[in-house]
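G., the chain you wanted modeled:
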Amino acid sequence: MVATKSILPITTGERMGERRQVVEIIAVVMMVGYFSTIAQALRFELQSGHTKCISEDIKMNAMSVGKYSVVSPNEGHPVPDSHKITVRVTSPYGNSIHHADHVESGNFAFTSTEVGDYMACLWAPEHKPSVTITVDFSWKTGVAAKDWSNVAKKGQVDVMELELKKLEDTVKAIHDEMFYLRAREEEMQNLNRATNSRMAWLSILSLFICLSVAGLQLWHLKTFFERKKLL
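Predicted structure as C-alpha cells:
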C-alpha cells in the first residue's frame, strides 16, 4: 500500500495571522530604519545674514544630543571670524535649552520635558561681501543618542552582549514610539470630532441667519408695498 499524507487546508484565521505577522515585521523594519536615519548627520550651507532652523519632533523624557561645527574654508587653517555662527535650541513652548554666540563648534544635550517640535536655529552675522558658511550638524534622539562606547567600558560587556543591549533598547524605543503615535492619533481623532461638531453648529447658525435675513427682507418688502398701496 502507498502511504498517503493528509494535507490540511489553510484557514482564513491562519492567513490573517500570517498577514498580521508580515505587517508587524514591515512595521519593525520601518521603525528601525527610522531610528537609523535619526543618527545621520547633515551638511548644509548658510549665507551670512540668514538663519536656518531644524526641527525635531521629540516625545516626553527622551534623551537628545546634538553637535555642530563650521567647516573651515581653508583646509588646515583655523576658522575665520567671518565664519562664526550663533546657535540656539528651544523647546516647543519657547524655552531656551542651548545658546552659543559667535562660535565655530559646539554641542548640546538634554532630556525632553515637553512634547512637540524642538527647534535648533543657526544664524550667521551679515558680512560684506557676503560669505557662504558650510556647517556640519548632527542631532540624535532616543536610542541613537545613547553613548554605547561608555556603556561597553562601564559594564565590561562583550560584543554580543552589547549588540543585545542595543537591540533591547531599540525594541523599547519602538514600543514607546508606537504608544506615542497611538496617543497622537487619538488626539487627532478628538480634534477632528471637535472640529466636525463646531462646523455642524456653524452651518446651523449660518442657515438660521440666512433664513432670518430672508424673512426680514420679505417683511420689509411687504410693508413697503403696503405703504405705497401696491398690495
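The chain has a mean pLDDT of 78.

Shout if anything looks off.
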